[in-house]
TrEMBL record:
Gene3D superfamilies: Methylthiotransferase, N-terminal domain, tm_1862 like domain
Protein name: Threonylcarbamoyladenosine tRNA methylthiotransferase MtaB
Keyword Iron-sulfur attached: yes
Source organism of the structure: Erythrobacter sanguineus
Ranges for domain MTTase N-terminal: 1-91
């Protein structure tokens, strides 16, 4: 999401001189710490530049960020893509944002904001209610990226699977995905970013299962493996819902790779709850895990719940990461000997459809999709 928005700001501000923009994140306490660190580093690297901060941290932690000596100004998160907030020309910038930073994989933000109230989350405070781009707006965006050379489009959003709930007729994400595939038959690869499993509509499920251009990789906003903790998080799914969804997907598309977000040390989490969290990694065969140690965020209900000691939170996060790393290593080992179509990036690596990262032969041109037979694993990369 931030990559997509940053590219748009980069294009909109292409004519600005000596300006540094920090597009910040505040989803965890660690993200806020890294935001402050980035601001200080940017000031050291550009001592004479005008330094402006926008994004979620500039919204949620406005007083703290605004008080930093290094910061010259703040731009509200809701206004950061509006040229008027930057005194930039209202007419089209000299480059589209796709051309401003052409990528082999294009990130298209089709939705923003969130209408849910998970007890740990500050995102609605930073981004507001859910808003969707129209199908026509998304198609124009995709067309611009394809014209700039993108070979894969990644649909992203704060709550991606809620796309369309605020539009006439209440279309679903499956409708948008189908429209993109129909409008651009030459688009080789379409990928979804993080999704909420309970919001996957029947058409989207069918496309994931049967449409080869939709990549066999699904990243679930899972958060935990214990039902009681999921209820205290105010998630809308339970352990069994996730198990049933993944089992159904694997029955329809056996090569699908599952990713998930998991939070360690949520308030009131017991040893048994943590054991459930560890177990779901194996139960769902999660091979792309994002592990977050819980950090209380201001103004959220979870911040007022009985907290797990920080040392225990860190230890449980480490255990989750170790379990996830073992699961991923076993998965990568199973891929040895397979031939995978890999989209080459500019750094000498590329991504297979299942989002496994592959080291490529020297001089492989960026943007090429080439068949690679996997011979081994080195430093977490398929070779």
């Amino acid at each position: 999401m931030n990559i997509a928005e940053s590219e748009r700001m980069r294009a909109m501000l292409a004519g600005e001189q000596n300006l540094v923009v920090v597009n910040s994140c505040a989803v965890t306490g660690e993200a806020l710490r890294q935001t402050r660190q980035t601001i200080r580093r940017a000031r050291r690297d550009h001592p004479d530049a005008r330094l402006v901060v926008t994004g979620c941290a500039a919204e949620i932690d406005r007083a703290e960020i605004g008080a930093m000596d290094e910061v010259d100004g703040l731009v509200a998160n809701a206004a950061k893509l509006d040229p008027r907030a930057w005194n930039a020309p209202l007419n089209a910038p000299p480059k589209t944002h796709a051309e401003a930073l052409a990528r082999t994989r294009a990130f298209v933000a089709v939705q923003n904001g969130c209408d849910h109230a998970c007890t740990f989350c500050v995102i609605p405070q930073g981004r507001g209610v859910s808003r969707s781009l129209s199908v026509a707006e998304v198609l124009r965006e995709v067309e611009a990226h394809l014209a700039a050379g993108a070979r894969e489009v990644v649909l992203t959003g704060v709550d991606l699977t809620s796309w369309g709930q605020d539009l006439d007729g209440i279309p679903r994400l499956g409708d948008l995905t189908g429209a993109i595939l129909a409008a651009f038959p030459a688009l080789p690869r379409l990928r979804l970013s993080s999704v909420d499993g309970v919001e996957i509509d029947p058409l989207l499920l069918d496309l994931i299962a049967h449409e080869q251009r939709v990549m066999p990789h699904l990243h679930l906003s899972l958060q935990h493996g214990a039902d009681l903790i999921l209820k205290r998080m105010k998630r809308r799914h339970l352990h069994g819902d996730a198990v049933q969804l993944v089992a159904r997907l694997r029955a329809l598309r056996p090569d699908i790779a599952i990713g998930a977000d998991l939070i360690a040390g949520f308030p009131t989490e017991s040893k048994a709850h943590h054991a459930d969290n560890l177990a779901i990694i194996d139960e769902l065969d999660i091979v792309h895990a994002h592990i977050f140690p819980f950090s209380p965020r201001p103004g959220t209900p979870a911040a007022r719940m009985p907290q797990v000691p920080r040392a225990v939170v860190k230890a449980r996060a480490a255990e989750l990461r170790a379990r996830a790393a073992a699961r991923r290593a076993a998965w990568l080992t199973r891929l040895v000997g397979e031939t995978l179509p890999v989209l080459a990036e500019r750094d000498g690596t590329g991504y297979a459809p299942n989002y496994a990262r592959v080291a490529l032969p020297p001089a492989t041109p960026a943007g090429a999709v080439i068949d690679i037979t996997i011979s081994g694993i080195e430093e977490g990369l398929l070779r």
